[in-house]
Amino acid sequence: MLRLRLAHALAAGACALALVAAGCGGDDEPDSGGASTTSAPAETTATSGGGATASAEGKEVFAANCASCHTLADADANGSFGPNLDEVQPDAATVEAKVKNGGGGMPAFDGQLDDAEIAAVAAYVAESAGQ
Asked: Do residues 61 and 124 make contact, with C-beta atoms less than 8 angstroms apart?
């Protein structure tokens, strides 16, 4: 748990620095960035630990790393830098690619969040935003 909290703190700090350096947002269109991913890891993670557990983990990861930039009603997040996820309604594969690789002003979280955390937040965002 300490490792997870440390990773969240580091990721939040990295996001804050990236916001200052590049600005986050303005890109309401999902950016494929040339990345090709499948939604299988997100679906596997979301169902392997039980939907409620995976959703709770995804919501926790979102709150710690994404809510300061993005709006998502289910998370009571009203970020103003990144796209409003309730409006964009990205699928899990799009969220996973964006979280891993960044793009459009968003920092990459690959290496700051592990694969399970990325898959959990991708599944949570897609489910919460209406996908």
From this structure: yes
CATH number of the domain residue 88 falls in = 1.10.760.10
For residue 70, tell me if it sits in a domain. yes
Dihedral, CA of residue 122, residue 128, residue 22 and residue 103, to nearest 10: 40
Distance CA 21, CA 85 (A): 23
Task: Quote the number of domains for the chain.
Answer: 1
Residue count (the chain): 131
Question: Does any domain span residue 29?
Answer: no
> Can you give the pLDDT at residue 131?
77
pTM of the model: 0.63
79 has pLDDT over 80? yes
| The token pair that represents 100 in the structure block | 């891993």
Is 49's pLDDT higher than 80? no
Q: Give the structural domain span for 40.
A: 2-24+35-128
